[in-house]
Amino acid sequence: MSYPEALYLGEAGESSGIFRPASAGPDLTIGGTAVHYLGTGASTGGQFGLYRWEMGPKPSGPSPHFHRTISESFFVLSGTVRLFDGRSWVDATEGDFLHVPAGGVHSFRNESGEPASMLLLFAPGAPREAYFEELGAIVAEGRQLGDAEWTDLYLRHDQYMV
Predict the structure, then answer these.
(1) 56, 142, 146, 147: most buried by Cβ count inside 10 Å?
(2) Which CATH number is 86's domain given?
(3) Is the pTM of this model over 0.90?
(4) Residue 76 belongs to what domain range?
């Protein structure tokens, strides 16, 4: 393995960092989950998307699925999050990590009855915010989607349920 092609060809470097303080509020709430857009695909030039997912005590999380265009990684910050690696579920706690390459079946759930938080990393950066925001609107409005509507939503956002 070697380093990728250079992305910056200047000589002196530049001041281009983007700081987000820990005190910044969530960008979105989906039910009892606060989602923080730490680094979106747009803000990282498509290199990755990084999100802090703060789940409340009620059970939450997607059913098993996979993505064709992106990998997804999980890093548990606090609490207990059930992670599925395509073979089995594990109760992951602070410091535990799971990486799932494109095509890998995975899922996560907070079933602990306590709050839990984790980082989600997508690579390369995809517009996952649109998917999260659409889910948030569905939950907030109490909408019930039919099978065809769910299929359409998932297809538009590289989400293939298994």
Answers:
(1) 56
(2) 2.60.120.10
(3) yes
(4) 28-161
Of the candidates 103, 4, 2, 86, the one whose C-alpha atom is nearest the C-alpha of residue 46 is 4
* Rounded Cα–Cα distance for residues 149 and 154 (Å): 9
**pLDDT per residue as tens digits for the range 66-88:** 999 999 999 999 999 999 999 99
